Amino acid sequence: SLQGKTAVITGSNSGIGLGVAHELARAGADVVINSFTDDDEDHKLADEIAREHGVKVRYIQADMSKADECHALIEKAGACDILVNNAGIQHVAPVEEFPVGKWDAIIAINLSSAFHCTAAALPMMRKAGWGRVVNIASAHGLTASPYKSAYVAAKHGVVGLTKTVALETAQEPITANAICPGYVKTPLVEAQIPDTAKKYDMTEEDVIQKVILDRQPSKEFATVEEIGGTAVFLCSSAANQITGTTISVDGGWTAL
Ligand code: NAD
After folding, report:
1. 242 to each of 84, 213, 233, how far by Cα in Å?
2. Cross-referenced PROSITE patterns, in alphabetical order (predicted)?
3. Among 17, 112, 114, 236, who pairs with 85 as Cys (CB 3.0-4.6 Å)?
């Protein structure tokens, strides 16, 4: 059980982050959820998770595109035994047309925030004598797709950061690993469907089957519960010697 542990999950008012928050709470951890907004719904989500799993849950607003807000998130959390670097955005365009602002935002949110939050959390983990860094990378941390230069670069970067943090903590009871999901049906993926349909002049259903799941041999989306369950496993004692590596949850994508 993760009772007595505090988990901070970045970008967790939606999708995979929210799913991971639920599964860590189900396993007994107190949870901090986060996004850049500060709406009633955000705080209601925290109350819902708390009620469902009987743990303490707080929502802390912080913009993961900004270094100081990454540090402030971990400081406000007060404890961070489990850090899940999950915040992420996507933009799809050919390299020569890729908007510079989108490149910068993707590198900041998908890669640099993991660095800043890890830097802020490691001293707390060392003080507590236990820690887990779980980075939500992607199949795109291991392979590429056209038109996703910033995302693929950021996710490969996350995998490299994961290995480095694992080496720096190798002789301590702290591990760092990356989960590499294939396609999970979340708002991030749903938003890509109309764009891709336009680009390839296809129906949205054809985009799902022939473009998105074309890469995923199982022909099924992974679920946020499955990603959350993998995070719980990485926090278990069975995973004490698993560090500096990636776990694919991709229906066979990277076996192709
Ligand atoms: P999502 O859009 O549902 O969730 C993204 C989360 O990040 C949201 O909670 C959003 O509020 C938050 N976020 C965005 N910008 C932020 C910022 N500046 N500061 C703080 N929070 C911010 O998408 P998702 O699919 O759940 O993606 C979560 C992570 O999983 C991302 O890192 C994504 O790259 C990765 N991933 C997703 C898939 C997939 O198929 N959905 C596959 C592989 C990896």
Report:
1. 16, 29, 10
2. ADH_SHORT
3. 114
Residues designated as active site: 151
Using an 8 Å Cβ cutoff, are 137 and 159 in contact? yes
Asked whether the beta carbons of 240 and 136 are under 8 A apart, the reply is: no
| pTM, rounded to two decimals | 0.97
* Cβ count within 10 A of residue 185: 16
For a pocket test of ligand 1, which of 152, 183, 186 has the largest count of ligand atoms closer than 8 A to its C-beta? 186
* Ligand 1 site residues, Cβ closer than 6 angstroms: 11-17, 34-36, 63-65, 86-89, 109-110, 136, 138, 181, 183-184, 186-189
ipTM: 0.99
Q: What is the largest CA-CA distance in the chain?
A: 55
3-class DSSP state of 131: strand
Cβ neighbours of residue 200 closer than 8 Å, sequence gap 6 or more: 207, 211
What are the residue boundaries of the structural domains of the chain, listed by start?
A: 6-184+222-250, 185-220
In ligand 1, which atom is closest to the CA atom of 221? Answer: 40
pLDDT digits (tens, 9 = 90+) for 207-251: 999 988 999 999 999 999 999 999 999 999 999 999 999 999 999
- Tell me the C-alpha distance between 183 and 192, whole Å: 11
Alpha-carbon gap, residue 230 to 126, rounded angstroms = 23
Distance between CA atoms of 129 and 173, rounded to whole angstroms? 7
